[in-house]
Amino acid sequence: xxxxRSRVKGAPQLMKTLRTLPDLVTEEVxxxxxxxxxxxxxxxxxxxxxxGSGHPYSDGTLLRRFAVKFTQGGLAARVGSxxxxxxxxxxxxxxxxxxxxxxxxxxxxxxxxGAPAQPFLMPAYRLNRNKAIAGIRAAVIRAIRRAAAGxxxxxxxxxxxxxxxxxxxxxxIELIGYPSK
Length: 181
Fold this sequence. Notes:
Blueprint: H1 11-20, H2 23-47, H3 61-65, E1 67-71, E2 76-80, H4 90-95, E3 100-103, E4 109-112, H5 121-149, H6 157-165, H7 169-176
Antiparallel strand pairs: 1-2, 3-4
Helix pairs in contact: 1-7, 2-5, 5-6
């Protein structure tokens, strides 16, 4: 699988810097990323169509296969359903399906009536975005300052403060794997 390339200026450098810091320093960042991911997960589950709600794809599969996955040693997170056991219909629930005809192998045509969109993941993301960015930004700044204050620090406290002040929201979003808008 190809590596995802960052489109945000400075995001790869921020991730590289965080990965080189000792675990003791980055533990708070990992905790902030985890808190943000589980907040989005909890709201998405709350907004997700429940089995028996009348939505054509609400059979419980999505709920059972919906999860949080941590990458980059806990410095990044994903919320959703992926891999072999994924809920393949996640996009059909989130965005809906227009009525369409399905050609069958025997030559007949089956009509699919469509399904209404019932967004749950993007609204959950929007509900938690600002709080997540603020929490992770604060944790990153504390991690950088703590690393600068350590015995084996290669940065001066002034350089750490300057670096911390230049971290953008887009860099934080790229770091944790959220969509940018």
